[in-house]
Amino acid sequence: MSGFDFKIKYNDKRSNARVGVIHTVHGDIQTPAFVPVGTQATVKSLDNQDLEKVGTQVFFINTYHVYLRPGLEVVKKFGGLHCFTGWNKPLMTDSAGFQIFSLGDFNRQRKLCLQGETLQVPLVKISDKGVIFRSHLDGSEHFFTPEKSIEAQMILGADIMIAFDECTFYPATYDYAKQAMLRTHEWASRCLTAARGKPNGQALYGVVQGGIFEDLRKQSAKYISSLPFEGIAIGGVSVGESKKEMRDVLDWVVPLLPAEKPRHLLGVGEIDDIFSLVERGIDSFDCVMPTRLGRMGQVLVRKVEDRGWKLDITKAMYASDKRPIDETCDCLVCKNYHRAYLHHLFRARELLAYRLATYHNLYFLEKLMQDIRQSIKEGRLAQLKKEWL
């Protein structure tokens, strides 16, 4: 197989939505694509066969967590994450930036600060060189640089890597957002230099930052687009801002990105958000929402009974409910189990509860993405959006 490639197959005539395919050495990713998060090299409660059955094309592994445990040397002995996990389809890794910058009280101490203020940052110290941080596992000190992030991701062997960036949290001042953006730009160039020796099959995405400030976002989009990244990621959204502010960021950024490169939105995945980002031209996005909700007993459904797109299966009202989770869903959970049984499993804290709820939630989202891709091909995305929203 050849290396990384992206092709657009269909464009929606009424929006910026598009259907494409990302080609990797471990298989193709049909876009727009939802990317589940497998924080510690596993999508919690599911095995690889489950992921294939629900339709998962690629999942996202957090470099920070795998770096700390089991460690890069362990993964290196297996030749990378694919052999270590037994997953033979595409994988993405993040830069470790988001996890590092969200350690401890870091967000609360930094997000409202003005440039030059004295800060108390107990777990993280940041400079232009890189970031010193302490492990949340044992308190050990580590130093991460753009070069080290790329080195780690190359060892992990992900098909798609993310450049090291400084995530701008909400609400950040203009001064801080600008400082973080400029540092992200400098680190982007260093990441590209460090990645020169990467295998042909690995792709590196640059990250657009700039907070909720239009001029900064546009400046960042233009700069990152000018660099020879294989794809572009948009960061610093879904960190506390409103949905309108998130949509505004996409409206500013996406038109400035190269059309021929894939676009990934970091950390977004609510049902209504999906339609917003797809119609603005996003090709892939990752989110912990369906898996995290599943472990909490929150299962996804078509919008019925004025309950939005999820119901809490742990509530007493479902103790004798003979219906499947969602009567429109044909996943194996909805075909074989009813709400009352899932209610019982969660109340009894049986491990099967987490697997069944997570399986259903991921299948539900993958089916939605299949429908979205088909609707774009047939020119009826707006109609599908209306049916759902």
Low-confidence stretches: 104-108, 110-116
Strand count = 16
Counting DSSP H or I runs of 4 or more residues, the number of helices is 16
CATH topology of the largest domain: TIM Barrel
CATH class of the largest domain: Alpha Beta
**Structural class, from secondary structure content?**
alpha/beta
| Mean pLDDT across all amino acids | 92
Q: What overall form do the CA principal axes indicate?
A: globular
Largest sheet: 8 strands, parallel
Distance between the termini: 41 Å
In words, what does this structure look like?
With 389 residues, the protein is an alpha/beta fold. The protein folds into 2 domains: 283 residues, TIM Barrel (Alpha-Beta Barrel); 67 residues, no CATH class. Helices cover 39% and strands 17% of the residues. The protein has 16 helices and 16 strands. Helix 1 runs parallel beside helix 15 and helix 7 crosses helix 8. It is globular, with a radius of gyration of 21 Å.
